[in-house]
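pinging the channel bc i need a second pair of eyes. not urgent but kinda urgent?? the chain im working w is below, pasted from the shared doc
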Amino acid sequence: MRKEHSVKLHILKTLSDGGFHSGEMLGQQLGISRAAIAKHIKGLNDWGVDIYRIQGRGYQLAHPLQLLDETRLKNAISTPVELISVIDSTNQYLLEKVSESDKGRVCIAEYQAQGRGRRGR
């Protein structure tokens, strides 16, 4: 996973608790500047994640968010499950892996950069 994706996912996981988190605190956790945090927040907005910024309080998700839990997924279904945080396309990934499994498999991602719906849109 690219470093910029791991930073975005760290921010997203931190914000998923529903509270406010300052850019300074996020920057300290990640070892980057507040300006870099703002850039990554913009990237999360580009992914479709709505994040409020309140001066003096920090950042907060506009809506509650529950991230995928690989252990819960694997316990819930018997089909092999792969959780990939960020991927171009889960469908393309599975098409490339089709010869490895004759029983089927599931690939789930928090974000698809080039994912398409069933009608190719």
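so The chain has two domains: 3-61, 70-112. and Strands lie at 51-54, 58-61, 81-87, 106-112. — does that match what u expected or am i reading it wrong
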